[in-house]
Amino acid sequence: MAALSKISAFLKNAWAKEPVITVSVAIGILAAVAPLLSPYTKYSGMINRATPYVYPGEGFWPCCPRGAWPPPR
């Protein structure tokens, strides 16, 4: 419980001296923690696992011999 009172005293002191820096640090901490608490993180991970990294047929063009595309300048 003593640690909580020390943190509270520190935050009150920081708010009294430098409110802009205190708010910017709070926003930074919130920005770092928000993705961990967001449900969208779960679904974006599921989509990324389901999407193949290399698509079938990538790099195979029967109409063009290998090395013919892009055309030389």
TrEMBL record:
Compartment(s) where it occurs, according to its Swiss-Prot or TrEMBL record: Mitochondrion inner membrane
Record carries keyword Ion transport: no
Keywords, sorted A to Z: Acetylation, Electron transport, Membrane, Mitochondrion, Mitochondrion inner membrane, Respiratory chain, Transmembrane, Transmembrane helix, Transport
Pfam families in the cross-refs: NADHdh_A3
First-listed, main subcellular location of the protein, grouped into a coarse class: mitochondrion
Membrane topology of this protein: Single-pass membrane protein
InterPro entries according to UniProt: NDUFA3 (IPR026626)
GO cellular-component term (any): respiratory chain complex I
Role description: Accessory subunit of the mitochondrial membrane respiratory chain NADH dehydrogenase (Complex I), that is believed not to be involved in catalysis. Complex I functions in the transfer of electrons from NADH to the respiratory chain. The immediate electron acceptor for the enzyme is believed to be ubiquinone.
Complex and partners: Complex I is composed of 45 different subunits.
Name of the protein: NADH dehydrogenase [ubiquinone] 1 alpha subcomplex subunit 3
Gene it is expressed from: NDUFA3
